[in-house]
Design a protein that fits this description.
about 375 residues, seven-stranded antiparallel β-sheet, about 55% helix, about 20% strand, flat
Length: about 375
Amino acid sequence: MEGLLLVLGLFLVLILIGIFGGNSDGNNQQKVPAADSVTDGQLERIHERCEERELAGWEKDSEKITQVIKNITLNTEISEEEARAIYEKCLNHFAEQTLIEEQSAYEEAEFKSGIVGKDKYRFGLEEELDTLENQLDNVGAVTNALSMGAMQPKSKNPVASATVTGAILGPAAGMAAAGQAQAQNAKAQDTYNRLQATLAESRRLEYQSAERAKRRVDAIRDYLKKIDKIEIDTSKPALYFSYVDLRVDDVSVSPSRKYLSIKVHSDMDYENEEIPESFWEKYGNVDGSVRITAKYGGSIIGAGYLCAPGFGGSTNSTSYYESISDYGYGFDCCSELEVFVRLNEEWDEDWDVKKVQVGFEPINIWVRTR
């Protein structure tokens, strides 16, 4: 008897441990900080919503920001302290993503600044063409492979099932087996029909994508032929650059505080009396790349690269201009440009951005001939 009581006592102890241990685990799970469970997508939506509502920051709009966070996370139990942690994480995430985008834009411009002439207009097109042609070569491959696994199902014979089962287990069991066979046939057929519908839709989308790819391939091939017909003159870069009129429309500090965002207006200097009339008869746009320097108080604080599709203006021949501006690959002129200047050090808060001086220095300059 004592042994039985001992066993029952141990059993009760184990149950209590399980109950309280489970509650303890549940409590531990509840103690996970809310900020750790918020996804990057939610952080981006929180930031976007706060921007839309023009919320000034936690100190001024903590209640509104908390409500935004509750709405985005679908968690009405978030405390103000947890909401603040999420908001700070949101700001850090935005700063990290912004810095990546700014750095990417700067590095792309730096790379393109070394590309000269026709290579600039061909940039990326051959690679894109190869990708599209491979896509066209493999049209139907995916759906054909999937369709191999979507064979018409073999139906079970309800009569045969009823006969075999009935002979062993009796008429009632035979009728049940027949009904089961019919149900399995219907289910298999329904699955097959839905799969065929899915395959048909996949095939439609695949061929629709292929049609777009085919149009793009034709456009790129046609454009590359036009590039081959163009002549590039790099003989007088200093002279050609003197024809260009660049001016700064705006200078601002980037969100990361590690770059300046400079808006530049570019155009041809039509008032330059030194430009001979023959230039407009022979040449198209001046093009190329320019190094931009930012100075403050006479000292260089950063530099960047301007790689415009064209510095503005065109020949007097409208037909020529139209023939090289098709498909938007970069022959047409671009007059409004944004350049990221990487600062040597993070922006000094004591500086006045309006006092930043911007200079332009040509790197590669050429003109396109007819």
